[in-house]
Amino acid sequence: MDADALIQAIASSADRRAFAQLFEHFAPRVKGLLMRGGTPPDLAEELAQETLMTVWRKAALFDPAKAGASTWIATIARNLRIDHARREKRSRLSQVFEILEEDEGPEQPDAVLAGSERDARVRVALKGLSKEQYRVVELAFLEGFSHQDVAQRLSIPLGTVKSRLRLAMAHLRRHLEDLR
Fold first, then answer.
1. CA distance 111 to 115
2. Which of 174, 151, 171, 173 is nearest to 162 (CA)?
3. Are the C-beta atoms of 91 and 137 separated by less than 8 Å?
4. What is the pLDDT of residue 142?
5. Torsion of CA 140, 158, 30, 93, to 10 degrees
C-alpha cells in the first residue's frame, strides 16, 4: 500500500476507495497509538475516526516532501488528542470556578477594586502588543486554538506563530511581572 499515493488520490479527486483503504489500514494503528499513550479505548476510537476524517478534509495539505503519510497522520492524531485534553481541562476548570463562586459570599469592595485594576493593567499590556502578536495571543489563549490551527487560520508558518507568541509573552511578563 502506498499511503502517499492514496492521500494524493483523495486530495485530487475525493477518491472514496483510496480513503477506504487508508481508513482500513490506519484507523486501528492510530487507535493503538493513542491507547499506548494512555487514551481510554472509547476515546481512542473516536479520535482515530476524527483523525481519518481530518485526513479526508485536509488531504490537499499533505506534502510528502515534508513528512511521510504515517507521520502526518500520527501528527494529526496527536494534535487532536492534545486539543481534546485542553477542552477537558478548560471544562473541569470552569466547573471548579463555578463551585468556588457559589460557595463564596459577596465579594469584598477592596477585592473588586484590585480585580478591576489588574484587569485594566492586563488590557493596557495587551494593547502594547503588535497587531500580529495580539491576534496570535487571541486565537491561542482566548479562543483556545492549537498553534497549528492558528497557523492555518492566519495562513502563516507554525514557526511564525510560535515566535509571535514567545515575543508577546515576554512583553506581557515584563509589563505584568509584579502581579504574580
1. 6
2. 151
3. no
4. 72
5. -10
